[in-house]
Amino acid sequence: METERLVIRPFKEGDEDAVWEIFGDRELNRFLPMFPLESRAEAKDYLGEVLMGNRGRHYAVCRKEDNRPVGYVTVGGDDSHDLGYGLLERFRGQGLITEACRRVVEELKKEGIPYLTATHDVDNPKSGEVMKRLGMTYCYSYREQWQPKNIPVVFRMYQMNLDGNRDRVYRKYWEKYPHFVEEI
Q: GO MF terms on file (predicted)?
């Protein structure tokens, strides 16, 4: 997939250094459930087992000029169809991750995915701003003891129905965790 400035593609062999830079970055991964990667060897394993594996969709976000990953967009393979994303700090503030997510959403809509969800830690409001720019709607918030980091987190859950069903709200987190609705 392409946009004006980006190539959005599957991760591939040869992306190990970029994976190490992205998923080893402590600040970028502060709001991910996993711990940052600790070595290039872990990056190689993560690339092969997760990013190139069969657990959902994992796209490398690359600038057209060098086709090197500077971020990622993921879509969960379960019933949440959870949208996730991250971008190296030096590329933030340029609208790149919103641009990449919009393109991925277009493709998912063509494929017939009925809806997407996305959650963000209340301490990471910039992620919520991306969700809003994509046209996602805030549905509710919930408290979770996040694993494997074992920290309490309040998440805001957003949703986008791609099939026109305006009344659908993904309720799995609502039913599983203490929840509430905020005035946002």
A: acyltransferase activity, transferring groups other than amino-acyl groups
Asked whether the whole model's pTM tops 0.85, one would answer yes
Contacts of 104 (CB under 8 A, 6+ apart): 1, 8, 59, 73, 75, 83
- Identify the bridge partners of residue 61 per DSSP, sorted by sequence position: 8, 71
Over residues 120-136, the pLDDT tens digits come to 999 999 999 999 999 99
- Rg (the chain; Cα; Å): 16
Q: Which two tokens stand for residue 30?
A: 């502060």
